[in-house]
Amino acid sequence: MSICANICGHDKLDMFFKKGICALGFIGHFYFTLFHCSSGCEKYEFRENMETVIHNGGCHCRRVRWQAEAPSSVTAVTCNCSNCAMRGSTAFVVPKAKFKLLGESEQHLNTYTFGTHTAKHLFCNVCGITSFYIQREHPENPDCVAIVVSCVDSGTLKHVQIRHFDGKSWE
């Protein structure tokens, strides 16, 4: 697969993307999104210091509540791995440093893992909703939290662009 990057000096990132690793969200202080360029390759768009807002969200019974700092316009991924496909999950990522559990939320969380057991699918132990999860960690994209779009409270997400990720190939 050929990869283009529209920012200079990111050979390390370019190699990272060539390995086929999902790369939507943050690297350092860069937000980036995936899109297809006219030459047919995949291209990554980096936007340094993009304006962000505080998104609030959580589960159905509201026992799990969180805040996440991210742009009001995000690129989210819909994944076809067995877990995401069954849950209908579409999520965008934020760095763990930009994510905060609120109140007594942690006491209401259980964790489910499968396959390699590297992704941590946290869910409310009362209503069963997964409103966020800890994605697989990679050297170039460590410490990220995936936020489930449908669990963000209304009002702060202005635009969500959906991209497909072939997670089934990772199982």
TrEMBL record:
Family: Belongs to the Gfa family.
InterPro entries: CENP-V-like, CENP-V/GFA, Mss4-like_sf
Any Pfam family the entry gives: GFA
Protein name: Centromere protein V-like isoform X3
Keywords: Metal-binding, Zinc
Primary gene name: LOC120260343
Domain CENP-V/GFA: 55-171
Species for this entry: Dioscorea cayennensis subsp. rotundata
Molecular function GO terms recorded: carbon-sulfur lyase activity; metal ion binding
Metal-binding among keywords: yes
Entry superkingdom: Eukaryota
